[in-house]
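Intended use. Records like the one below are meant for learning the mapping from a protein sequence to its folded structure. Do not use them to infer anything beyond what is encoded.
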Amino acid sequence: MGINWEMVLSVITIVVAIIALFQTSKQLKINNKQALFDRRLVAYLRIIELVELTKQNENHLEISKDSDNFFMTIPLHFSWFTNSPELEKIGSVIDAELGTTSHKRFLHQLAQLEKLSLEARLIFDKPDSDKLSQFVMSYKKFLFSMFQYQILFNHLQENMERWSWSYEEACQRLGVKEEQENVMKVATQLKQNYLVLTKCLPDIENQIKL
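Structure written out for the chain above:
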């Protein structure tokens, strides 16, 4: 009985196709793993920048109703919490008028932080992804709360001069105490999220390894 070369060639073709499919699948997995590694690494480095800033200024998150020094020096505190390569470009917004280039740059950076928060939630494994996301979002909210308060404080001074209001009267009319409470609430949340996140950083770093 002769060899059916047509069948042999068919079998060889099938085997080669299976091997090629296996290699393609393996390469896709490698590529996907590399892509995930790259995304996780970039996001992690950006978040660690925020973690370091929080670590350096952790004591400034202890704000109470009697913390007049904090509320009188918001621009200084804002500069401390934006003192990094990525955030330093928005440091000047605290003294800028609404609608200026600095203000638009600030809003863009806030949007980038919100995007980073969402990305962290999607590319890292739970429950660490939630901790990363919540920390970034609370950092964004803290920057925005300081910015909002400074705007209010500027209006406070303007209205005191314009209407001859006392400081106490201006605070009451403009809702300064309520805004201060919001800043304190956001600062407390940032510190809590920071402390929770720092405990799981080793586990997060293990997720990044190839």
